[in-house]
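Need tokens for this chain, all 161 residues.
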Amino acid sequence: MSEIQYLMLSSTLAFISCAAYALVFNAPRRELFYCGLCGAISWFFFAAFRDCLNRPFWGTVAGSAAMTFAARFFSYRRECPSTIYHVPGIFPLVPGMLVYNTVTAMLDGDLLKMFGYALSVLKYSGAISIGTILVLILPYSVFRIGPTVSQIRARKQAAKQ
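Here are the structure tokens for all 161 residues:
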């Protein structure tokens, strides 16, 4: 499987998993596509940067920043809170296996492994935070690209009359 095929397949699977996650947690049905799209964007940028630079930390920062940008853009365009898109979109970047390994090492009494895994969890959680904050500090006017859903509807109503 080529690198491009891997990126497309894994991004499609991230799209499906994030849309399903949003569905389980009662996101509005009309927003499920955009929730999945945020997850696909975050995974695509994470995997692309991770594979190109061989640096998972910077891949996590890039994926988080790209997903937060998309979430804020969809928030403006779709006139919904950005958390509807942000929470499912961050799902593929969460270091769940590292958290599991941390707890398992703690229960086994292996403190050296536990602290090693815990530091990795903190590192990747910090990367998610950095990527998110880098976009959240931008003013909301940056995301005002194109018309909103209500503006499009008003134009259609005016054209019918």
